[in-house]
Amino acid sequence: MFADNDVIAIGAIKALKEYKYGIPKDVCIIGFDDIRFAAVNSPSLSTMRVPKYLIGYLAVKILNDALQNNALQNCKMQVYGELIIRRSTLLE
Questions:
Q1: Which DSSP state fits 18?
Q2: CB 29 within 8 A of CB 89
Q3: Per residue in 51-70, pLDDT tens?
Q4: Which residues partner with 32 through β-bridges?
Q5: Cβ(28)–Cβ(49) under 8 Å?
Q6: pLDDT at 58
Q7: DSSP 23-86
Q8: CA–CA separation, 76 vs 60, rounded Å?
Q9: Interacting residues of 83 by C-beta distance below 8 A, sequence separation 6+
């Protein structure tokens, strides 16, 4: 199961455990964001780590450039994330 963010993934783990599903034995779960609680959750949550600071920096730069040039243009930005593998997806 891939969740939109780590909070939803942690909630899914909790709900699945209440129904006696094993994580990751029955269901593997991965989140998105790599919040601090992902590493200390039980089981620890696999997640996609994204460069939040860089995304914010680039967004402000693009907005500032648009304001300076008095023109808003379509812009594509690509940043790379990192897959963090933890116990919620490790089958032993």
A1: H
A2: yes
A3: 999 999 999 998 898 889 87
A4: 48
A5: no
A6: 93
A7: TTTT---EEES--HHHHHSSSPPEEEE--HHHHHHHHHHHHHHHHHHT-----------EEE--
A8: 14
A9: 46, 48, 49
Q: What amino acid is encoded at 27 in this protein?
A: V
Give the separation between CA 30 and CA 33, rounded to whole angstroms: 10
3 state DSSP class of 19: coil
CA 34/CA 44 separation, integer angstroms: 11
| DSSP string of 48-59, one letter each residue | EE--HHHHHHHH
pTM for this prediction? 0.82
Q: How far apart are CA 48 and CA 30, in angstroms?
A: 8
Compute how many other C-beta atoms are within 10 angstroms of the C-beta atom of residue 12: 19
- C-alpha 81/C-alpha 84 separation (Å) is 9
